[in-house]
Amino acid sequence: MTRLARRPTRLVARIAICVGVAAILGTASVGGAHSAGSHFLRVCADPDNMPFSNEKGAGFENKLAELIAAKLDAQLEYIWFAEATGYVPNTVGKDACDLVMGYAQGTGLIEDTNPYYYTSYVLIYRQGDAGLDGIDSLSDPRLKDKRIGLFARTPPASILAMHGLVANAQPFEINADQTATKAATAMIEEIASGTLDAGILWGPLGGYYAQRSSVPLKLMPLVKENAGPSTIYGITMGVRPNEPEWKHTINKLLAANAGEINAILQGYNVPVLDESGNLIAAAAAER
User: Quick one: which H or E segment has residue 250?
Assistant: First the structure.
């Protein structure tokens, strides 16, 4: 039975890079100052963290922020901060953020919206690899003795240990001053070359970089893990506490534009799931 995470730890509060940023939002008035028809929508975002966001506006979170600003008839303004450093952005006063994009549901660290998408970690291997074709769980005995890449100290690492798969696993580290991009691309290259048999990445990260591989790769969402930490998460937006009207405005906007949001995500090869862990087909998002 698929288990959806409702209380992910800080480790996955920003699963995109496997480093949480506890952005505790301040008390400046947003509901009145930044509701529909206002001038600015201030969004906290990383200036160099593809495929999520960058200062050129090329990430899918940039596109989502643009969509929300347009729906609110507001001018989009970014408050840049580098998540990999653990820096907490200024969230109080006139420069406070109205939204923090891509925050895991139910951390309890900040107020969050309803999830605007669900996704999971993914197993990645070379397309057509007969030895791995059809694997949809880390409990599959065919993974024994396989060389599997993973990010250290993430939920799948614990699951691999439970199944006795760590002896041949290759951990990839994220340096304190870097996003996950360098480690993710290195893992993808090793899977493509055959140095690794498979790898495990957070879905949006794995989907984006696997799609850019010179060798066709297969992505399998890890939605059937029945033991250990959850691999599926609902992703929300962080908002200020004690401002129910603002939160309601954003929740209503997310629900009304779910199809367009899914289309943006799937345009970056993000494996978008429904609440039961089933993959949502791209065509369904475009109806």
Answer: helix 244-256
Per the CB < 8 A criterion, the answer to whether 228 and 138 are in contact is no
Structural domains of the chain, with CATH? 10-117+233-285 (3.40.190.10), 120-221 (3.40.190.10)
Q: For residue 38, with 0-12 CB atoms within 10 Å meaning exposed, 13-18 middle and 19 or more buried, which class applies?
A: middle
Beta strands per DSSP E along the chain:
40-45, 48-49, 53-54, 75-80, 99-104, 111-112, 117-126, 148-151, 170-172, 198-202, 217-221, 232-239
Q: In terms of Cα–Cα distance, which of 55, 46, 118 is closest to 89?
A: 46
d(CA 135, CA 144): 12
Range of 82-91, 109-118, 201-210 with top mean pLDDT: 201-210
CB burial readout 197-216, b (16+ within 10 A) else e: bbbbbbbbbbbbbbeebeee
Q: Which residue has the tokens 């694997």?
A: 135
pLDDT tens per residue, range 102-148:
877 766 667 889 999 999 999 999 999 888 999 999 999 999 999 99
Strand partners, 75: 40
163 dihedral zone (left: phi>0; alpha: psi -120 to 50; beta): alpha
Beta-carbon count within 10 A of 2 CB? 16
Cα(46)–Cα(186) distance, integer angstroms:
21
Q: What is the mean pLDDT of the chain?
A: 82
